[in-house]
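During the reporting period the student researcher (J.K.) took over the structure-prediction task from the postdoctoral fellow and processed the backlog of single-chain submissions. One of the processed entries is reproduced below for the supervisory committee.
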Amino acid sequence: MQYQDLNKLKYLNRDVARLQHRIEELQAFGEGTTSKITGMPSGACRSDKVASAATSLADLEALLKVKLAEVQGELYTLSAFIESIDDPLTRQVFEYTYISGFKSEEIAEHIGGGNTAGSVRVIRHRYLKKMKEAG
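J.K. obtained the following structure tokens:
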């Protein structure tokens, strides 16, 4: 597994978050278009905007399902790779980094045992270097 592959889950999760945010925006737009009695005639173009938003919403929801399936597949692949790491400390570092998305400081805090953010980065760097030399 290469470095780019390890970070793929992070970027997929960002895609999912972006799509969820866009879906929330469209839902809010749809909820904000209920009829209001103002005494003024309503324009016909408002319903066109609602229809367009509804179509976009359906498309985004379908895309979100595809992305979530990708996330699940990538999570499975990444988990299998991490479980193949012999050293338990290195395995924890990789899990916290690439699955949980923690920063080195957070990982050191979770692991404890006198580990620092620097030592966590060294563990990760050494294992990646060892993988590169072996591959």
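The committee noted the following: Helices lie at 3-31, 45-83, 88-99, 104-111, 117-134.
J.K. will present the remaining backlog at the next meeting.
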